[in-house]
Design a protein that fits this description.
Blueprint (H helix, E strand, L loop, with lengths): L8 H23 L10 E9 L2 E8 L3 E11 L17 E7 L7 E4 L1 E3 L5 E9 L4 E10 L2 E10 L8 H34 L1
Antiparallel strand pairs: 1-2, 2-3, 3-7, 4-5, 4-8, 6-7, 8-9
Helix pairs in contact: 1-2
Length: about 200
């Protein structure tokens, strides 16, 4: 004869809460943006001629502070002229503006960094929104300013926001609630045994 096990309404309710919690976690993870760029900078301009130099622009375009590198390498078979400042400004400047036109172009100086070969310039530039940005590198070489332009999409910085923190905490809260429920059930079952 089969043994019938009746589950209490509390056990059924607990199982329903666990299923609802797991469904909520799955929905939040599916809704989280997956476009954020986390990793090393990537090129947006590669080996464009700038006088006797080949110029490349690399970026990590995070919303908040975006990082830009302008790398100048000697073109094959040339003796490169020095990279000179135009008037008192740095030799390399970077301009950024939203493609939408909501802000005018903001020009930022790029700082020369030590490099084994050629020249490497670095700039940190604030980007305030996730959108398409026009990036223009102005490279002053031998009295001539060369202009390199590209577009890049600013992406979330990859740091967890409040929603990600909430999603991370949900499993731990659920496990804590299950542990507490099990402890309370054990305590209820022990009391009748202790009385006898």
């Amino acid at each position: 004869m089969p043994i019938l096990v009746r589950r209490s309404p509390t056990a059924r309710r607990g199982r329903g809460l666990v299923a609802a919690g797991l469904a909520l976690i799955a929905a939040l993870v599916a809704a989280a943006p997956g476009r954020s760029h986390v990793g090393p900078p990537f090129p947006i301009v590669m080996e464009a001629p700038a006088g006797p130099w080949l110029a490349s622009v690399w970026t990590d375009p995070d919303v908040g502070i975006a990082v830009f590198y302008v790398i100048l390498e000697p073109a094959p078979g040339t003796a490169p002229a020095p990279v000179e400042p135009a008037s008192a400004e740095p030799a390399v400047r970077l301009g950024v503006a939203p493609v939408s036109g909501r802000l005018p172009e903001a020009i930022h100086p790029a700082e020369l960094q030590p490099s084994r070969q050629g020249h490497r310039y670095y700039a940190e530039i604030p980007l305030d929104r996730e959108e398409l940005w026009r990036v223009t590198a102005y490279v002053a070489v031998g009295g001539t300013e060369h202009v390199l332009a590209a577009e890049v999409e600013a992406t979330p910085d990859g740091k967890p926001g409040p929603l990600a923190a909430l999603v991370t905490l949900v499993p731990f809260v659920a496990l804590g609630a299950l542990w507490l429920k099990a402890a309370l059930l054990r305590r209820q079952h022990r009391r009748p045994d202790e009385a006898s």
